[in-house]
Amino acid sequence: MADLTINLAGIKAPNPFWLASAPPTNTGYQVQRAFEAGWGGAVWKTLGEPIINTSSRFAAVHFNGQRVAGFNNIELITDRPLEVNLKEIYETKKRFPNHAVVASLMVEPKREKWHEIVKRVEDVGVDGLELNFGCPHGMAERGMGAASGQQPDLVEKQTMWAKEAAKTPVIVKLTPNITDITVTARHAVMGGADAISMINTINSLAGVDIHSWNTIPHVGGKGAHGGYCGPAVKPIALNMVAECARHPEIGVPISGIGGISTWQDAVEFMLMGASGVQICTAAMHHGFRIVEEMIDGLNNYLDEKGIESVMELVGKSVQRYSNWGDLDLNYKVVARINTDTCINCNKCHIACEDTSHQCIDMLTGASGNYLEVREEDCVGCNLCSIVCPVDGAIEMVEIASDLNPMSWNDRQRTLARLNAGQTEMEVV
Ligand SMILES: Cc1cc2nc3c(=O)[nH]c(=O)nc-3n(C[C@H](O)[C@H](O)[C@H](O)COP(=O)(O)O)c2cc1C
């Protein structure tokens, strides 16, 4: 069996599946049960100044039969006294010395506040700290969470203050509610972050009740924007992880978060540069036991691939993620319909005819109607294979080309050299 242990900036855990800072990590009782179930680590529900939470605070987006495709919340940080949390962290760490227990922290952007809380949580034996610069609601209105996470200089300064007092590794948790997450990630690194984690939740309103006209959720008839997470946000989170992983000036380990529900999702995040993952919504939806399937699935996958340690996956796909301008414009695929498995639902024809390039013909042969792609007109957009309800009935196949690979950037460089007076022979 492969080695599932991970090391994220010096924080070790028996496997890469950690619970993210959220309701599942609210108490020692929960975190200890999670460790018993198999989770490798937990980032404690964010500690900070006492707050009061609203009643009615979660909502979900159910899409086309799938419950909780997305999850929305207006919950704030922990509403339990710091002393109680510290006592339970101490007890948990004592019972599970080899599991990762990370304290998530959020305080006002003041040096002495950071020094004080870092010292207090380190005194009870945490393995690391996660600075929460991400929560988009409630705390942001008080200058914390996403409000400081959206200001790169504040991210840097606060990371520095936490680092001044910290003896354990500092992870900076970033908000996705920003134009370019690599900017805040770089400032976290400039402030001394040992690692970064992403994403926290995305600004959202889950819905409006079309009968009562109230927001979903609402608190006595009033709503406020919340944070979106769950399966729907995975592509956004994966891109942000990948952008940070491939950025030459970031270079610190990444803890991947956002929409992870299966071992396959975790593998994708690790291939794109995450050294481990954190999970919230999937645990809230299905309970702690989902980790068993994740561990089994990951073990089987690594064994099948002959990979000895899960850490070998980290970053293996990063070099395959590039800028659009570096993509080969001479690479070509076309759709091919397998008439043996096609059920003639015509969804591909309609999609192509109405919204793509009108290259799927409806033909009639000896054995009835069939669909065929006019390959010379197919641009290889994939839409037909996406809408096709039968796996494998439409295959996208590569068309061999005599042309050399040429990207937009290559083309611009060639044009610039021709404009500068070089001949075509010289340019080639
Ligand atoms: C109800 C709820 C409360 C959360 N509270 C916190 C929190 O206190 N601190 C924090 O850093 N993130 C918090 N999060 C964000 C999660 O840690 C995580 O970043 C986010 O949910 C994305 O992961 P997921 O798609 O697996 O849920 C919360 C999320 C939810 C759903």
UniProtKB/TrEMBL annotation:
<keyword id="KW-0411">Iron-sulfur</keyword>
<comment type="subunit">
    <text>Heterotetramer of 2 PreA and 2 PreT subunits.</text>
</comment>
<feature type="domain" description="4Fe-4S ferredoxin-type">
    <location>
        <begin position="333"/>
        <end position="365"/>
    </location>
</feature>
<comment type="similarity">
    <text>Belongs to the dihydropyrimidine dehydrogenase family.</text>
</comment>
<keyword id="KW-0285">Flavoprotein</keyword>
<dbReference type="GO" id="GO:0005737">
    <property type="term" value="C:cytoplasm"/>
</dbReference>
<dbReference type="InterPro" id="IPR017900">
    <property type="entry name" value="4Fe4S_Fe_S_CS"/>
</dbReference>
<comment type="subunit">
    <text>Homodimer.</text>
</comment>
<keyword id="KW-0288">FMN</keyword>
<dbReference type="InterPro" id="IPR017896">
    <property type="entry name" value="4Fe4S_Fe-S-bd"/>
</dbReference>
<comment type="function">
    <text>Involved in pyrimidine base degradation. Catalyzes physiologically the reduction of uracil to 5,6-dihydrouracil (DHU) by using NADH as a specific cosubstrate. It also catalyzes the reverse reaction and the reduction of thymine to 5,6-dihydrothymine (DHT).</text>
</comment>
<keyword id="KW-0408">Iron</keyword>
<dbReference type="InterPro" id="IPR005720">
    <property type="entry name" value="Dihydroorotate_DH_cat"/>
</dbReference>
<dbReference type="GO" id="GO:1990663">
    <property type="term" value="F:dihydroorotate dehydrogenase (fumarate) activity"/>
</dbReference>
<keyword id="KW-0560">Oxidoreductase</keyword>
<comment type="pathway">
    <text>Pyrimidine metabolism; UMP biosynthesis via de novo pathway.</text>
</comment>
<dbReference type="GO" id="GO:0004159">
    <property type="term" value="F:dihydropyrimidine dehydrogenase (NAD+) activity"/>
</dbReference>
<dbReference type="InterPro" id="IPR013785">
    <property type="entry name" value="Aldolase_TIM"/>
</dbReference>
<dbReference type="GO" id="GO:0046872">
    <property type="term" value="F:metal ion binding"/>
</dbReference>
<dbReference type="GO" id="GO:0051536">
    <property type="term" value="F:iron-sulfur cluster binding"/>
</dbReference>
<feature type="domain" description="4Fe-4S ferredoxin-type">
    <location>
        <begin position="369"/>
        <end position="399"/>
    </location>
</feature>
<dbReference type="Pfam" id="PF14697">
    <property type="entry name" value="Fer4_21"/>
</dbReference>
<dbReference type="Pfam" id="PF01180">
    <property type="entry name" value="DHO_dh"/>
</dbReference>
<comment type="similarity">
    <text>Belongs to the dihydroorotate dehydrogenase family. Type 1 subfamily.</text>
</comment>
<protein>
    <recommendedName>
        <fullName>Dihydrothymine dehydrogenase</fullName>
        <ecNumber>1.3.1.1</ecNumber>
        <ecNumber>1.3.98.1</ecNumber>
    </recommendedName>
</protein>
<keyword id="KW-0479">Metal-binding</keyword>
